[in-house]
Specification:
Length: 429
């Protein structure tokens, strides 16, 4: 395949950062179709439109998801990307790979595809970028039979669940995020591989409120580790932070060079940055009104040797995040503040909520409507009634502006009929 002139793409190599253009040119030495990738992209830059077309559904026998079809609309110019399908490979929980596993995966992709990968994109899957239709079945056979791995999710199904490192490496993890992710991935294989939902649905598991997988921004169902009781305080360590003693750098020393360079200032760096202002000093003791704490983790991150999460560990469940496809991006909404999360009961507390959401969404959701958009369309009060959850003040986004109140019959003691009869009696008198 011929090398293409790419003056627009070449500009991307001129900056100080590594460029995918350079990587693709190097890959073209052994995979000539990469020249056609660059050539088609250069043409898209000139024409200001994409030159990938949908081209129909493509996949492997028995699966409706896992492979994203890509076809060029100018195959006569770039025959190397006439077919250029994306294969999603389910990642291990927490994205732990052995070096052998990675080498085997790369050897497989060198054999059947372009050798171009994306590890890891926002989907969570390991992405193989670019192969022909006739390679899909043999690639799938070798992947599943020789490597013991499976395809991830694509289409209107459950997307491949993903989790942070959890208890394996993080001291803040408040439940076993990796085990929860693994078990639910195994439980819902059919929902991953055979699309049956109104649109895509994503689980993401973060072991603590730092939310290192950005579940609150990107997943339909976020499981965020939290605690139910009070933050644990080591007052002696608080004093050492305030006195800037050796071995007690705030935030691991990350504040050096920041807006408070120099000595640690607990007022500026912790108390004033608490979103609910639930912290204060009484003399040389730190006080916390835990009833107002939103578990943001900021104070714990800044003073990790003085503050720790509580001992009653579990998770919060938030529902409804999405990217800006229809009505704009939105974060997920806190629905269940605390639920116990345990492998001992096969994570039944999570499963019950998941399946209740699915039953409702599959009934009332429109085609290509994320669950967050369905919630937005019908209103949060309706969703909370479906989930049998009592409203909380935190569910209120803004004060009510509609002057009319519409009561449901069951909300009025005695019902409407009695009230009407009483009104008529008074009016007649």
């Amino acid at each position: 395949m011929a090398k293409h002139e790419t003056p627009l793409l070449d500009q991307l190599e001129s900056g100080p950062w590594p460029s995918f253009v350079t990587d693709l040119k190097e890959q073209a030495a052994t995979k000539p179709e990469c020249w056609d990738i660059l050539g088609q992209l250069e043409l898209s830059y000139k024409d200001r439109i994409t030159h990938w077309k949908h081209g129909g559904i493509v996949g492997v026998f028995g699966y409706g998801g896992g492979i994203v079809g890509r076809y060029s609309d100018v195959p006569e110019k770039f025959p190397g990307v006439e077919h250029f399908h994306t294969v999603r490979v389910a990642q291990p929980s927490g994205m732990y790979y052995t070096t052998k596993n990675l080498r085997d995966l790369m050897d497989l992709w060198e054999k059947y595809g372009s050798g171009v990968t994306n590890i890891h994109g926002s989907t969570g899957d390991l992405i193989f970028l670019g192969t022909r239709t006739e390679n899909l079945e043999p690639l799938f056979w070798d992947l599943t039979h020789d490597l013991g791995q499976d395809l991830g999710g694509s289409g209107s199904n459950l997307r491949t669940p993903s989790a942070c490192l959890g208890e394996s490496r993080c001291e803040w993890s408040l439940y076993d995020a990796q085990e929860a992710c693994h078990q639910l991935t195994m439980m819902y294989q059919d929902e991953i591989h055979r699309p049956a939902f109104p649109y895509k649905f994503k689980f993401k598991f973060s072991g603590c409120p730092n939310d290192c997988v950005a579940a609150v921004a990107r997943s339909d169902f976020s499981v965020i580790g939290t605690w139910k009781d009070n933050i644990r305080i080591d007052q002696a360590a608080v004093k050492k932070y305030i006195n800037n003693e050796a071995g007690y750098p705030a935030n691991g020393g990350a504040h050096k060079g920041g807006p408070w360079d120099g000595k640690f200032d607990i007022q500026a760096e912790v108390l004033d940055l608490c979103p609910t202002r639930c912290m204060w000093m009484e003399g040389d003791e730190l006080k916390i009104n835990d009833a107002e704490c939103t578990r943001c983790m900021h104070c714990i991150n800044v003073m990790p040797r003085a503050l720790r999460p509580g001992v009653q560990k579990g998770a919060s469940i938030l529902i409804g995040a999405k990217a800006p496809i229809l009505d704009g991006a939105q974060f997920s909404t806190l629905i269940i503040p605390f639920v116990e999360v345990s492998a001992e009961d096969d994570f039944q507390g999570l499963v019950d909520v998941i399946e209740k959401v699915w039953d409702w969404w599959m009934e009332v959701g429109k085609n290509r409507e994320r669950v967050g958009e369905t919630m937005q369309r019908v209103g949060l009060p309706t969703f909370l009634r479906v989930m049998e959850i009592d409203p909380l003040p935190q569910h209120v986004r803004e004060p009510r502006s509609n002057p009319y109140i519409f009561w449901r019959e069951e909300e009025v003691p005695g019902g409407w009929e009695r009230d009407i009869v009483e009104f008529r009696k008074r009016h007649a008198a």
